[in-house]
């Protein structure tokens, strides 16, 4: 995490609305980012993901990305107010990193369910067959994408609006190595904080365990919505 994102904001910019001030024109940067509530208890994904790990991941790591995304927004507002863009690139880097972390974690929590696993059906299943050849090949490809990340990152199933097909993406950190025009549908968190407390260095076991938790109803819903997104071409 960039050191800038960990630095405490100035008191002047810790207002009543999560530190985001109105600027001289009266406009307030929005929306403000919030950690979403989970739709299940922290311990509901056991034994695949422990309650302690979920509490730490959602309550601490995700919360930090939200706090730092809001802080980056506040610092950009402060820069506009002062007319000083000396640190603009730094603030935009912090926003890209932390906002992307917030969005990916928000997708992840919806992607998981205690009653998950099995396989998708309907249009999503047909699209997986068309794009990857078979569900088993897709599963192997996405798991391999997660397993081979150097450093921190994510693997994602995404809808490519330009090619109108499903692809897998290996995301570096939270925001790099992306294909523009792609909509993430299903994500695997490959950061150490996602598994180390429970799985230590056995990350392959974690990447296999998540296949018992996929909420295909959520992934299918995202797939339906993504197909309505116009191609940028
Ligand atoms: Fe994470």
Structural description of this entry:
This protein is mainly α. The protein has a domain at 122-226: minor pseudopilin epsh fold. Helices cover 45% and strands 10% of the residues. The protein has a three-stranded antiparallel β-sheet. Strand 1 (153-160) and strand 2 (165-172) form a beta hairpin. Helix 2 packs antiparallel against helix 3 (88-111). The longest helix is centred in the first third of the chain and has 32 residues, at 51-82. Mean pLDDT is 89; it is low at 1-20. The site of fe (ii) ion has 7 residues, from helix 2.
Distance between the termini: 34 Å
Task: Kindly state the number of beta strands.
Answer: 3
- Report the order of strands and helices: HHHHHEEEHHH
Question: What is the C-alpha radius of gyration, as a whole number of Å?
Answer: 19 Å
The order of strands across the largest sheet is: 2-1-3
Topology-level CATH name of the domain at 122-226: minor pseudopilin epsh fold
Structural category: mainly alpha
How much of the residues is beta strand, in percent? 5-15%
Uncertain segments are 1-20
Which class of the domain at 122-226 in CATH terms? Alpha Beta
CATH architecture of the domain at 122-226: 3-Layer(bab) Sandwich
Given the structure, what is the number of helices? 8
Q: What's the main sheet like?
A: 3 strands, antiparallel
Can you tell me the overall shape? globular
Q: What number is the mean pLDDT?
A: 89
